[in-house]
Write a structure and sequence with these properties.
By secondary structure, this protein is α/β, with parallel strands linked by helices.
Amino acid sequence: MRVINPDHRLIAHKLTYLRDKRTDSPTFRRLAEELMTLLAYEATRDVRVEPFEIETPVAPTTGIKLSNPKPLIVPILRAGLGMLEGMVRLLPSAEVGFLGMQRDEETLEAITYANRLPDDLSGRQVYVLDPMLATGGSMADAIRFLLDRGADDITAVTLLSAPEGIAHLQEALEDVEPPVTLVTGAIDDRLNEVGYIVPGLGDAGDRLYGLAQ
């Protein structure tokens, strides 16, 4: 798995205000969208394209357009929805699907409780959105689910990641042949005893939707 942590001052600037507990939910949502758009530039560096013949006002030329099948953007419910607009702004012609997964507390098996995806993802590039990569379990389950449906190139995009989550994801996907990339705004210090990223930014879902205490 390839890990990309872009070194960009605007990313660090926006993350600073996302981390600040004084940042209100409307501002948090706006900053998350803006940060997502910055990360999307890096995440889509290898988006598939094909030649496209056009005529400018001066002369014919060859440009490029997105290849078919179009890329698929998959926010992980619910917090991933807060990143969707920033990604769609950059890839307006991409298709959008939704995926909600959780673990059964007894069996530890992944359970899909929401799925709005094509049954066949053969040949698709997929961009998976989730604000936080903490333990890495949910993201690994989601990527496995997409690979099982035929996706052959997956990029996960997160605002923050913990080293433990990255390590778990690398181990869980070490036998995977299709390329998997992680693009993250920052790699923080660690997880605390209750599984929160440190220094982190708290619960991204709660802060996106105004539920933070």
